[in-house]
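Quick one: structure tokens for this chain, please?
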Amino acid sequence: MSKYISRTTTKRQFSAVLGVTREEFDKLLPAFSVCLQKKAEDYHQKSLATRQRKSSPGNPEILQTNTDKLIFILYYLKNYPTYDVMGFNFSMGKSTAESYVKALTPVLLDAEERLKVLPKATIESPKELAQLADNKAILVDATERPHYRHKDNEQQKKHFSGKQHDHTLKNTIIALETRKILYVGKTVIGSMHDYKLFKSEFCQSIAWFKNTKIAVDLGYQGIKKDYQFSENICIPHKKPRKSNKNPEPKLTDKQKEENKLISKKRIYVENAISGMKRFQVLVNRLRSKSNFFKDTIIRLAAGLFNLKNNFVIQ
């Protein structure tokens, strides 16, 4: 198969090292190869317009086959080693490993989009949201991942999440009860509140939930007041505050039962987020300063989770 992964590698080892099974790898490889070829052709066409001398073959690539290149980028996402470690494992220098990661990340993104497993980065209208949901209730939650600590004091304060007690990045995730990930929102600083982030992505003046039911957690307090068609919005009951008139606040049995039903629905978006985080690039502290990389890696991980479960994003 490759000088890095052989056919004798067990299924467990294959999945542990690359984050995908051999069958999923075989599904991904043809699309990845097509996207690699397209990128090479585009680069060749651009170079012809500016080239002033005859082209030369140059040095042979260290990763000579498409299989090796796909193994390389999947290994990076699954394990998130430093470029020094990547270079050691793939017999190349640190700078070469970095160049390969930067070149292959957008190719993998294109391949997932070609296979229709890549979640949406934007949703333009209620009609598009309803089509994505396919008459099913959508489940909304936000996920955080560790981020390096800025040297600048103001910047590090912005990234500090009081909820996680750490410097983080945050994204809104929309999934279905099947665990299909439909949407991965923009990457923002960890200090931004979940609901504030949601409102920045879904304008309150638009009737998003006219034909789509939605379930959220208590972090989205106020959503029924702020958005139209509140009857389609499902949020748990919040325990009343303690006061002189109500010294022992508690929920009624009916409210507790309703909260249990909502939790049973919402658990699937938590499962989907957990599935994305098989890839250590979302678990270990992010080292990159590239905004493109911050947005791309979480969508790549979500797309690979959709691929694993044969989910298609129309």
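Residues 20 and 308 are 7 Å apart (CA to CA).
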